């Protein structure tokens, strides 16, 4: 078996220099569409590297916070220009390292550029309010100051957008950053950091340390890290939150979803089918906002199912670099095993497999982590496939008679991230908005789909009840000072 190697070795980025880990250990980052291809080597760092990065971030803090927001924003505009210039190369690296299709990777990279420009503009916007004081002649107002050093821990499913939507607001509001991206997509993350470097970010203001759980944990535990922003699984998120709380650091967690779509009898079924396929199967179902449960009113259950199956069976699965492929592989062997385990569990619990359910291992795809898009029916709310986040291309269909019943089943999970309904009835829309447990509510639109200028986050166990993106980022990345002035 020939092993194709690319020579790129990514170092940590500490105090403005690309620095090998003190451990002298590296790991290969592989292409999930062809595990014989090594995309690059990344550092497998430890607590010593984290400490060095945090020291650099602390040292850079004072000068960075002293700059005006406008000046910090100017640097982010330059970073956006560099990312835009390198968009094709970075999108291709993302596809090779993470598996999503090239059009999706291009879309995500363009979104990264837009997020940088949005937060660059934030540097020129207001950070406080004048509030009437009770004493005549006195001036009372609020202003905001950065937290200090922020630890950014990110997953592999959006390796450009998520690091940027956390780091860009942190930086523009005057924090310095130590980033720990997922090991699966560390080469892509390193390229994002190169854009900050090329854009002229001062040394120590943004730092990158690659490595596994030990690195993440050291960052969360470091006494000089003032805030932690995390996206990933619930298990890890809970640990991060507990450690941060124990030492009094501010934290923000964005975690899983088990997102429902309700299809009412009056829905446009073609639109609903398109949305379920796009929301459930794009990025191979690996989005926290992905559709995983579909509740269909009984009158339209059969026509909806037939239309859905007809389209799902025709989806092209292959390497994300193949222009014919609509869906790529899952990201890793761990993810492959997890998804296949849930498919077996669904069958064992009595759900009926309508299509898919198998790993794809024909000649062209046997070296990749490809899974057929999978649809189950006769799923009951108590089954594990109806309760737990699978994070793969698996849909569960469930019929309902009355909207109340659908809402009850939709809410009967521990998550509350996103949810959508397809209906033309304004009364049903309003009941849905009122009753559904979700931070992101979508009407006649797929469950995935996040706008960078709007608050993003979930209810219940999907988040730490905080929000990120848009103006919501100001709440997390700054502290308020209330000022009273008697002249
Ligand atoms: N909400 C979302 O968007 C996401 C949800 N998930 C869910 O999580 C499942 C497992 O995926 P996985 O990649 O393991 O997710 P994790 O939550 O473990 O990983 C997210 C990030 O946290 C880091 N990390 C791991 N352990 C710790 C720790 N103890 N302290 C601090 N940071 C840590 C990871 O590092 P490392 O690179 O070493 O893993 C990664 O950078 C998926 O199947 C899916 O259900 C996954 C990704 C995104
Ligand atoms: O749907 C999106 O664009 C973002 C989803 C997300 O934040 C995630 O999966 O982690």
Automatic annotation (TrEMBL):
Family, per entry: Belongs to the aldehyde dehydrogenase family.
Start and end residues of each Aldehyde dehydrogenase domain: 18-483
Gene3D superfamilies: Aldehyde Dehydrogenase, Chain A, domain 1, Aldehyde Dehydrogenase, Chain A, domain 2
Active site per database record: 254
Gene: ycbD
Keyword check for Cytoplasm: no
Single annotated GO MF: oxidoreductase activity, acting on the aldehyde or oxo group of donors, NAD or NADP as acceptor
Keyword annotations: Oxidoreductase
Protein name: Putative aldehyde dehydrogenase YcbD
InterPro entries membership: Ald_DH/histidinol_DH, Ald_DH_C, Ald_DH_CS_CYS, Ald_DH_CS_GLU, Ald_DH_N, Aldehyde_DH_dom, AlphKGSA_gudD
Presence of keyword Oxidoreductase: yes
Highest taxon of the lineage: Bacteria
